[in-house]
Design a protein that fits this description.
single chain; 234 residues; alpha+beta; Butyryl-Coa Dehydrogenase, subunit A, domain 1; Butyryl-CoA Dehydrogenase, subunit A, domain 2; 2 domains; six-stranded mixed β-sheet; three-stranded antiparallel β-sheet; 19% strand
């Protein structure tokens, strides 16, 4: 719909004109899929406070996860703008669903791609892009929130291993994750903040869903704590 002067009511600043053909194609394809396949069901998911177990592989099969990453790692090599458009279309359906996509694609896949060893990248990124694996991002804490400066989770060297001690909260996909990016402050020294790629099947890892939520209900948010409050990581 446009105004008498030709201004589109859904695009006041004519941003659509700045998109290239691939970005428009990605946006339109995502819009068609999510409004046809997700929107009709999201009210039930919200009421039940659940996220479908098969959502990750379904979105992965559509190419919605890690869309900006190189094809060698399972991505599509698309632009950051295309990624933003993809998230906007999913947000139209539900913020919890968008949270799953953006956590998987940005907060989990990006630090692995940016800082992990090549064998770690090859092991995790294609599986995360396809939805065969789910990741979570362990930063937020009960007392510190998402402030790394106030972080209480600690890590220390024990021989060739690292031991992580602490509690995280409101972690999207925490109870479903196959891999967790866990942030902790090093004990001693200059207290630098370190990130760890943690397989969630390691002894000591525990995540429990938070059910008492008034929002983001079609999303899995967890309290994530080592049990008994420690993870040993080589």
């Amino acid at each position: 719909m446009t105004t008498p002067t030709g201004v589109r009511l859904d695009d006041f600043y004519d941003l659509d004109a700045t998109l290239d053909p691939e970005e428009r194609m990605i946006r339109d394809g995502v819009r068609e899929y999510v409004r046809g396949e997700l929107l009709p069901h999201v009210a039930d998911w919200w009421t039940e406070g659940t996220l479908p177990a098969d959502l990750a592989p379904r979105l992965g099969a559509q190419g919605f996860l890690g869309v900006t990453f190189p094809e060698a790692y399972g991505g599509a090599g698309a632009s950051a703008t295309a990624y933003g458009l993809l998230n906007r279309e999913i947000e139209y359906v539900d913020s919890g669903l968008r949270s799953f996509v953006s956590v998987q694609s940005s907060l989990v896949m990006y630090p692995i791609q940016r800082w992990a060893r090549e064998e770690v990248k090859r092991s995790w990124l294609p599986r995360l892009a396809s939805g065969d694996a789910v990741g979570c991002f362990g930063l937020t804490e009960p007392d510190a929130g998402s402030d790394p400066g106030a972080m209480r989770t600690r890590c220390r060297r024990v021989g060739d291993d690292w031991v992580i001690t602490g509690v995280k909260r409101w972690i999207t996909s925490g109870s479903r994750a196959d891999v967790a990016i866990v942030w902790a402050r090093e004990e001693g020294g200059d207290g630098r903040v370190l990130g760890f790629v943690v397989d969630t099947d390691r002894p000591g890892f525990q995540a429990v869903d938070i059910k008492t939520k008034a929002s983001m209900r079609a999303s899995s948010n967890s309290k994530m704590a080592p049990h008994p409050r420690q993870i040993r990581w080589s």
